[in-house]
Amino acid sequence: MAIPISYNVRNVLQRPVSTLTTAVGVGLTVAIFIGSIALVSGFRAAMLETGSPANAIALRKGADSEISSGIGRDAANILRALADVAPGPDGRPLASPELVVVTNRERLGQPGSSNVNVRGVDASALALRDHVKIVEGRMFAPGTDEVIVGVRIAPRFANCAVGDRIRFGQRDFTVVGHFGAGGSAYESEIWGDNPVLMPALQRDDVFQSVTFRMRDPARFPALKKELEADPRLQIQLKRESEFYAEQSGLLARVVLPLGVFITIIMAVGAMFGAMNTMYAAVGARAREIATLLVLGFSPLAVLVSFVFESMFLALIGGAIGCLIALPLNGITTSTTNFQSFSEVAFAFRITPGALAAGMAFAAVMGLVGGFLPSLRAARQSIAISLRA
Amino acid sequence: MGLLSLVLVNLGRNKRRTVLTLLSVAFALFLFCALGGVLDTLAESIKVGSETRLVTRNRISLVFPLPLAYRERIAAVPGVKQVSISNWFGGLDPNDPHNFFAQFAVDAATYVPIYRNDVEIVAASPPQAEITLPADVDPKLAAFMTEQNACLVGETLFKRMKWKLGQTITVNGTIYPGSWPFTIRAVYRAKNKSFGEETMLFHWKYLDQRGMGGRAMVGIYILELSDPSRAGDITRAVDAMYENSAAATRTETERAFQAGFVSMYGNVPFVLRVIGLAVVFAILLVAANTMAMAIRERVSEIGVMKTLGFADATVFRLVLIEAAVITLGGGVLGALGAKLLIEGSHFNAMGFLPPMTVRWSTVSGGIAVAVLVGAVSGLIPAWQASRLRIVEALRPAE
Asked: Which residue in B69, B65, B118 sits closest to B89, CA to CA?
């Protein structure tokens, strides 16, 4: 017969201070665990939301990011004229040959500078990306020295407020608007008109990528095969969504192992703390446990009961950890995406899955940390415990 | 001293608890120092940059090149001893694109002399022909210097990739398309640890001819100064020369240039500090819980001690010292463990950073934090113990 769960719950609540200190220790570990998951999923989300599966992006063969790519004007024109490119509302093809350059800009509020992507776009760029919306000011007028700045970087870099003058190469540009893009990496970029930006940045005849809306996204595999085999183009074609997902790979490969390393070491430390608490609990209740055994509860029932108590304690910790981690949700941070060599701002994203993983992690800590003390409880000699 | 031996006896009483607490503190401190080590390594990575060398790059950003023609004019600025060039290649290992290593195309005849104090050549192919090398170039480099597609690789990289001297390796260009063969002609070891041993150097001429069609563009210029005290003047002089040209320049000390890369990590150092604080707070709780449990068990004993004439202050100190001794033990174990394990593992962020270091200041700082945390964690239990009235303490527990 099993020992009622309420026995353990009452016991844990009986010693609030000790319970709380142990639980908070577990909670901090869980919070860091959830935090590192939230960081990676936030970054990944920023990248994933950047690209649409209905769009295709062409890069030069062998290039692993836009900045290492180059597509000549001739190849760009061939791509634009493809029958597979969907037409926009104005009847022109929804295709944007784009210039992407990394520019070094002074940070605001903290010393030093960082790299910001500047994207020269075609007039169809906004229609091509429906999630890009002007949130302040207006869109740049084609053919003028006007640019728009992503909302995530506008407050972080100098000369990015609406009305400011910002210099690229030999020319000054005017910031006329800020744009949002659903939290995606575009929000960390500055956009301007290609024919004006290209000469200012001395990129006359080479674009970095060509992005276009596919008339029939289901035809992508055939289209990819066709275009990659075309000797005039020398390109690789990717779905825009897949391309940006790949761009988040490097950071995920660095942060996740680091997060796991930190969490495991902290978990071992917190588990020792939990073991201490459980040993003390078992020691203080030696007579009580002996009584349970005398009453006919099997040693296995005692073992299960105490392991459960330890897990319950750890789950309180897990809940505390979730509460500590929750305020992180939505906090914006930034790091350089070394694949594009420029800074990307993104928000921590705490998903229900991350919280569940945190609770599961806490339960495992409780299970492992509570096992030895519980074993001791189950094995103790009744005679010795009941004497005295 | 009597007090200390009393503390030690108390610690030995519940050995399991002492050991568990000690290990808990040790793991936490290991982590604390490992995180500190990451910050140390970041700080260390800017040290390869010398205050006595300058770097000139395109003002727009590093991604934009500069014309080779600038070289002669920069070299003519008074106070500049010699000018070398370096160009990021950005190639990938064709077998495993994730197995990253850095490649730079350099002008070896000036690059090697500029870094003569930072690297030494540990292995090299014998030269094919007799040649005269520039002064300050190790004679062992003769084969490397004469062969167009020869490369010089760091020892750590050489071992990691299991390469052999004289082997021809292939690198897939991302910026400069195509598959590029290189022959390994020499291996260097970094005398200055922060120079890094994960880099491959090859001849800029090869890159120019094959990859740029002779357009002669250069990533950065490295300026060795004959008079480092005039670095400020030289910086201004170089940038003024190209102020209004198509490719304006930005010159800064090599250290500031490297610091720019560190600042690219954005908020990462801040995040690591927050985690470090959380770790410290977690050990505080574990240690406090342990001390509270220890005191609870010893209530009647403390009553006896007070009866025997131990002053409240002495009891207070006793508990505090006991807490500090446990955390000191754990702290020393964890902090030294971090130093030995992390530096011993030669962990290296794929050549982005120099080999991971944990400075002694981080180790001693960690131990100090541990002792402090121990003392703080003992405060409440110690205060409770010192306030305990003999009558209550000696009353039977149940």
From this structure: B65
Query: Which residues of chain A have a CB within 8 Å of the CB of B60?
Result: 101, 103-104, 168-169, 201
Indicate if the pLDDT at residue B255 is higher than 50.
yes
How far does CA B383 lie from the centroid of its chain?
A: 42
Distance CA B28, CA B22 (A): 10
Whether A336 has its CB under 8 Å from any CB of chain B: the answer is yes
- ipTM entry: 0.81
Is A256 a residue whose pLDDT tops 90?
A: no
Q: Do A61 and B177 touch (CB under 8 A)?
A: yes
Residue with the two structure tokens 């970054």: A43
Percent of chain B with pLDDT over 90: 37
Angle at the Cα of B62 (from B61 to B65), degrees rounded to 5?
100
Instruction: Answer yes or no: are the C-beta atoms of B287 and A272 closer than 8 Å.
Output: no
CA B241 from chain centre, in angstroms, equals 36
User: A367 at the B interface (CB within 8 A)?
Assistant: no
CB contact under 8 A, A276 and B286: yes
- Is some CB atom of chain B closer than 8 A to the CB atom of A203? no
Cβ contacts of B261 within 8 Å, gap of 6 or more: B45, B46
A62 touches chain B (CB under 8 A): yes
Q: Please state, in angstroms and rounded to a whole number, the distance separating the CA atoms of residues A180 and B33.
A: 40
Extract the runs of DSSP E, i.e. beta strands, from chain A.
55-60, 71-72, 95-106, 113-121, 133-137, 146-150, 165-168, 171-180, 189-193, 206-207, 209-213, 235-239, 332-337, 342-347
C-alpha to C-alpha distance for B151 and B143, rounded to whole angstroms = 10
Give the chain B residue whose CA is nearest to the CA of A335.
Answer: B266
Judge whether B376 is closer than 8 Å to chain A, CB to CB.
no
pLDDT score of B397: 55
**Model confidence over B57-88: pLDDT tens digits?**
998 888 889 999 999 999 999 999 999 999 99
Q: Which residue of B has its CA nearest to A281?
A: B293
d(CA A136, CA A299): 69
pTM above 0.90, yes or no: no
Higher pLDDT, A328 or B196: A328
pLDDT (tens digit, 9 = 90+) per residue, B5-58? Answer: 888 888 888 888 899 989 989 998 999 998 898 888 888 877 767 778 999 999
Per cent of chain A over pLDDT 70 is: 99
| Interchain contact, B173 vs A333, CB within 8 Å | no
E strand spans, B125-263? 150-154, 168-173, 178-190, 199-203, 217-218, 220-225, 249-253
> A272, A323, A371, A376: which to substitute to probe chain B, counting the most B Cβ within 10 Å?
A272
E strand segments, B80-149: 80-88, 91-92, 102-106, 119-124
